[in-house]
Amino acid sequence: MMAEPIVEQLVIELGNLQARIQKKVGSALSVHGLGLSDYFVLNQLYVAPTQTMRRHDLAELVGLSPSGITRLLLPLEKIGLVEKETNPRDARVSLVILSAAGKQLYEDARLSFAEASSQLFKSLNAEQQNNLLAMLQALR
After folding, report:
1. DSSP code per residue over 28-78
2. What's the start-to-end Cα distance of the chain, in Å?
3. How far is the C-alpha of 107 from the C-alpha of 100, rounded, in Å?
4. Cα 68 vs. chain centroid, distance in angstroms?
């Protein structure tokens, strides 16, 4: 049997890491009623200059299709974490706004996210964490 090329091993290890992130960080966020994808959406809105983004841009940043972001946003909108607004200049453009409740929940959940993330990478020292971050950013 032939050994797997390094790039295949990398993809397998990254997939395994994603599963561990989903399990550990997702579990920490569940106490706030959020999933990992919900958190990523709230994070993107939180760091946006006006805490408002075009739905299409938000989908792109969190790696979802336009229909995927719509399905994810509906329950968040229903419970008041985000608000939807149409662009007065172009009705085809839909905006997503982080509500005050969404901002508060994000800030609360951020502590759980940070702790779970720290636990996930505790076996790496600061230099190794910085190197890994730089390598992952180079893959964008």
Report:
1. HHHTTT--HHHHHHHHHHHHSTTSEEEHHHHHHHHT--HHHHHHHHHHHHH
2. 33
3. 11
4. 13
| pTM of the shown model | 0.87
Residue range 78-133, pLDDT digits in tens: 999 999 988 677 767 789 999 999 999 999 999 999 999 999 999 999 999 999 99
- Tokens 């720290």 found at: 118
CA distance 110 to 89: 34
For residue 25, give the nearest of 126, 108, 111 by alpha carbon. Answer: 111
User: Which of 38, 43, 45, 40 is closest to 97 using CA atoms?
Assistant: 45
**Quick one: tokens of 70?**
């719509």
What b/e sequence results for 16-38 when a residue is b if at least 16 CB atoms lie within 10 Å of its CB, and e otherwise?
eeeeeeeeebbebbeebebbbbb
Torsion angle of C-alpha atoms 122, 126, 131, 137, degrees rounded to 10: 70
Beta-carbon contacts of 72 under 8 Å, excluding residues fewer than 6 positions away, are 37, 38, 41, 64
Whole-number Å distance between alpha carbons of 77 and 17: 30
